[in-house]
């Protein structure tokens, strides 16, 4: 199914990529892409290996890692540990509402073509367009608003929507910090420094061994959401019971604190 002709023409008008439009988008996105760019850690301060096992203890994960030197070390992952999980995905991750990044090739008639797309599964606030290393390359990042088998419309913020054509044989990469994606066999790089005979990690990068399929990923997400809703209903019932027995006392003060944090 092609994009609706009216919507496509409207999007194309906004995304003509004239000099003024690109300049505006570049100004809006320059600082965002600068912050989003990751630098490679110093090899002298890294520890690389493969994950042998993953043990969950509450909200903490214990990773057993076999290093490239054949040693076995343990690494604790908390919700505060800087973490990035990278892997291959499939075309199912390209969907409306997804945050996507691509280095697009710009033709003389101002059309954009993307060969590889990175999907941020946890979302991202960054939007915009940035010049690549050559005049023909533009780095594009934003939210997919429309999509078919040949092209997608991306909301890039103040620059308006942009149309990116999907090159034949395009690839999809994913990036996340979801602990549930970490599995044995994945490669791992710890960035940090040796401290008192142990390696203290200040950042963790996990590279998944097997590609993710969108169908399984989103099915697991939906299953987790349903489980969370069931827990919420149970908590609501318990709260009513507590209120009856405790009068005007707050049934669950920790729930109120969590609500404030979420806000």
Automatic annotation (TrEMBL):
UniProt signal peptide: 1-34
Region (Disordered) residue spans: 218-263
Keywords of the record: Signal
UniProt keyword Signal, yes or no: yes
Protein name: FecR protein domain-containing protein
Organism: Symmachiella dynata
């Amino acid at each position: 199914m092609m994009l609706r002709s009216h919507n496509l023409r409207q999007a194309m008008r906004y995304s003509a990529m004239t000099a003024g439009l690109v300049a505006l988008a570049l100004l809006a996105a320059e600082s965002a892409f600068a912050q989003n760019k990751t630098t490679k850690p110093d090899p002298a301060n890294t520890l690389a290996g493969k994950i042998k096992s993953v043990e969950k203890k509450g909200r903490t994960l214990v990773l057993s890692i076999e290093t490239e030197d054949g040693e076995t070390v343990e690494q604790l992952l908390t919700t505060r540990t800087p973490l990035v999980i990278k892997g291959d995905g499939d075309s199912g991750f390209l969907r409306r509402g997804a945050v996507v990044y691509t280095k697009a090739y710009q033709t003389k008639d101002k059309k954009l073509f993307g060969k590889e797309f990175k999907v941020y599964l946890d979302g991202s606030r960054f939007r915009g367009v940035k010049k690549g290393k050559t005049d023909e390359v533009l780095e594009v990042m934003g939210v997919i608003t429309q999509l078919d088998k040949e092209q997608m419309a991306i909301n890039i913020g103040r620059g308006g929507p942009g149309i990116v054509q999907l090159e034949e044989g395009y690839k999809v990469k994913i990036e996340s910090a979801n602990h549930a994606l970490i599995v044995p066999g994945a490669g791992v790089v710890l960035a940090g420094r040796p401290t008192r005979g142990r390696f203290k990690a200040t950042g963790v990068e996990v590279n998944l061994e097997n590609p993710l399929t969108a169908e399984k990923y989103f099915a697991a997400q939906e299953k987790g959401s349903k489980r969370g809703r069931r827990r919420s209903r149970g908590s609501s019932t318990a709260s009513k019971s507590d209120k009856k027995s405790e009068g005007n006392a707050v049934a669950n003060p920790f729930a109120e604190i969590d609500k404030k944090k979420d806000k």
